[in-house]
Amino acid sequence: MGLVKHVAKEFFKEVDDKSREFFEFVLPPIDLHEENDNLIVTVDIPGFDKSDIKVSMNGNVLSINAEKKDVANGRTIMKQRPRVIDKKMRLPITVKEGEEKVNSAKYTDGVLTIEIPITKKGKEISLD
């Protein structure tokens, strides 16, 4: 019975590691919408403290980094929650380097909301 228990423990540890890697690198889910000449970016990153999150922009690339310390109480059976978020995404707006600006960033109930002014929209082309 000891061998079966050991094999099962190793199997679930591998599953835990792979699922956490998935959540850390594929997620978090992000929504974008336009409102009053602002791009609103909504990111679901529950389980982090506000002090764990860093938001930055370089040109039109938005970077969201978050890392939390492991606080394990008791014996850990399974661990799938991400400890690290490192998300970079190219925004669908034109932002000149050096003119990056964020109107506001709020983190409430596990949801990060970032408001970015749209500085330049594409030109409308008239048809002849």
Overview of this protein structure:
The longest helix has 24 residues, at 2-25. This protein is an alpha+beta fold. The chain has one helix spanning 2-25, and strands spanning 30-35, 38-44, 53-58, 61-67, 84-90, 104-108, 111-117. The chain has a 4-stranded antiparallel sheet, with no helix packed on it. The protein has a 3-stranded antiparallel sheet with strand order 3-4-5. The protein has one domain (2-70, 78-117): Immunoglobulin-like (Sandwich). Helices cover 19% and strands 35% of the residues. β1 (30-35) and β2 form a beta hairpin. The mean pLDDT is 79.
Class from helix and strand fractions: alpha+beta
Level of helix content? 10-25%
Q: Given this structure, which CATH class is correct?
A: Mainly Beta
Mean pLDDT: 79
CATH topology: Immunoglobulin-like
Organism: Marine Group I thaumarchaeote
Family: Belongs to the small heat shock protein (HSP20) family.
Pfam families: HSP20
Domain SHSP: 21-128
